[in-house]
Amino acid sequence: xxxxxxxxxxxxxxxxxxxxxxxxxxxxxxxxxxxxxxxxxxxxxxxxxxxxxxxxxxxxxxxxxxxxxxxxxxxxxxxxxxxxxxxxxxxxxxxxxxxxxxxxxxxxxxxxxxx
Length: 115
Fold this sequence. Notes:
The protein has about 120 residues and is of the alpha+beta class. It has helices at about 15-25, 30-35, 50-55, 95-110; strands at about 5-10, 35-40, 60-75, 80-90. The chain has a four-stranded mixed beta sheet with strand order 2-1-3-4. Helix 1 runs parallel beside helix 4 (about 95-110). It is flat. The two termini are about 20 Å apart.
């Protein structure tokens, strides 16, 4: 089972982001469903918590994260499981994302079933 999440950080007035979105619009619904477009900045202009977490500074940026689990044993012997997203690949720039998107979807999702 693949446990990956693909984020694409964008901004509203970013021509390369629009180029990437236009390209993604031509993909199948299944492929599009694997990509989670998220804002780089809040309405006040600060980076979002997610952008801070993955150290994203520029748009568009694609970040592939592995869903991992963190186990902590509490002093009272209770187990505390937390989901932790660990970045495994970062691609910056519309042209680079477009060039690598097919292989990224192959490697980290089930959007391209085996023939």
